[in-house]
Amino acid sequence: MAKADRETKKAVALKYDPDKDEAPKVVAKGKGLLAERIIALAQEAGIPIKEDTELVQALFKLELEREIPPELYEAVAVVLAWAWRLNHKL
């Protein structure tokens, strides 16, 4: 999950199952109240939230359920590695 931009309150949720997916997918996105709801649901579920304004802007342009394009692999890999490390510390 990545969130950013408090003024515009955008949020994007990613999902990645290496056994099923070739690349992570955008599974939810929204702005304003919808962004707040996405963030709240992630918090309730214990899903890590990372703020990255530039990445959120890029991911927000993508269609839902589509794999991210190769040009975003590196940026998303950094977020996924962060989330993985965070989950394994807990």
TrEMBL record:
SUPFAM superfamilies per UniProt: EscU C-terminal domain-like
Name of the molecule in the record: Flagellar biosynthesis protein FlhB
InterPro entries: T3SS_substrate_exporter, T3SS_substrate_exporter_C
Pfam families cross-referenced by the UniProt entry: Bac_export_2
Transmembrane region(s): none
GO cellular component term of the entry, any: plasma membrane
Family: Belongs to the type III secretion exporter family.
GO biological process: protein secretion
